[in-house]
Structures
1.
Amino acid sequence: MKAFCLVLGLVFPMAARAQSAPPAPPAPVLVVAGSFFALSVADLDASAKWYTETLGLRVVMQVPRQNKTAVTVLEGGGLTVELIQHDDARPSGERLLVHGVFKVGVVVEDYAGLLELLRARRVEIALGPFPAREGQRANLIVRDNAGNLLQFFAK
């Protein structure tokens, strides 16, 4: 009987541990209320126009050219985009084959509305749209006028 109780004492605690829920993941280090990214572009005016007309952002700051650099900052809907034009900057070639930023992405409140707006404005969708499925939000990827990849995710 002692051996039976010893076995029960060893087996049941293990079974209980195996069935318990995994520990909760740690709390996120930060909570984002908006999104920001900065891009180096060849044509500041053309890129500012694309972000204004395509995504409805508005210019909130323009830094006049100094030391071969001009900057325009656009905002709207929680997104801030900083466009930088430097006279000596050159294209990086195939973005996937260059270390550094490959694409930027933001989570949007109204994904279906954004998709409809992009189609109405005849914005070419580079990849997608991809439907939501387990472990993946609905999303799509577009290229801006300078070829930068922007990925939009459903909330």
2.
Amino acid sequence: MERAFRILAIVAILSTTLLTVKAQAPYKNGFGISAGTMQALSFKTFGSDHFAFQLDLGTAFVTTSGRFQNVELKKVNFWTLELNPNFMFEGHLVGGLYGLAGLGGSIGYCWSDIQYQGVFGLTLTRNDFGKCGANAIVGLEYKFRSPLAVQIDFRPGYGCLFAKHFAAHYFDWSANLGIHYAF
């Protein structure tokens, strides 16, 4: 935990020193889509010149291990429908290019068909779970002279799937390419 805190502190210090604080926000609001390991509708707004809030609503595919009804499961596949809010510092680098770094979280719903060894043999059952997590976000955004902005980002983090008889904790990450209509 201490090592993760140190890495996060180093990333925060580097991002604030590398990003210049002279420029204003590239736009006020943006609405668009994001594709990658998470497909989402995305809304981004700037509360000030350098601080942005981005909200993504989308689906992702997760493979993880966990315990289900006291049975250890390996490599179970899940689909998630999640809401992922992120708070970011965004600074001007050069031309229309901006760098971004911040923190976020996720909350949502997921489902899977789980196959496990039961009392009477192999059992396949459809299960629904909750999902929550926390993540960092780092990336680049390019604002064109037209009302179009393109963002590429990486979101490493922690995820937890939970239900009455199931719990799974895993490295939750996404790498995305987003396109926003800026207004």
3.
Amino acid sequence: MHFSNEQFDALYETSIKTTDNDVRYKLYQKMDSLIIAKAPVVPLYYDQVVRFSQKNISGLGINPINLLNLKRVQKD
């Protein structure tokens, strides 16, 4: 991306030296706001689901929100 921003860099340097989690979280929020404001990237997220089950299990599927629904699951 080659994103370069002095304010972001300063916040980053401060955040890696900070031991207080609350302060670090606030710094991360400021950094995130800068990235979104400058929009050097478009954040995309693709969820991937992997479920392992025995061969005698049926009805165990996936859904769009990755919710585990066991209403139709049967053991043969």
4.
Amino acid sequence: MQKEIILNLIEQKFNGNILDIGFFNYGIVYNIIKNTQESYSLEYFHNESKDINIDENFYDSSVLFFSFSEILFRLKRRNLLIKIYEGLKEEGILHIWDINKGFGKTYNNKLKIFLPKGKVKEIIIKDYNIFKNVSKKSTINLLSSKFDIIEEIDEGELYYIKAQKKRRKNNEEIKSSSSRDKF
């Protein structure tokens, strides 16, 4: 049975150069930015971008808005996080909103999203793959080697994670350890 879930993003803000990675262009990030900043740089990648080329150390923030759970395999989610890590400036911020669904579960709900300036968007999110684990715990495990968790909100069926790129110690250490990383 489908439920309606409310997500209040009226006060949400992003700063600087923003990388929005999504499988569906809901226009959520764009609507937040255009209503809260006078000047901004927003780049959007979607599922048709098979090989995402992200400029290194360019973005202040990256946003995954109900898109992380669209990636079927954990390895592909890990690889995407590595690309995001490389694209973020030192101390850059990653925002993730997604469904909290573990193995053996399905998801089918309507989200009502409140945005700045009285805008409201409604989207339906469905995931019937019982073999996919896209829980908050799984996401935090993927993030832990490259990001520090600043904030996490668990609303039961949805979660939000705000993570900051970990500082690099020095370029040599990064190059020598990149092949061994178990992200």
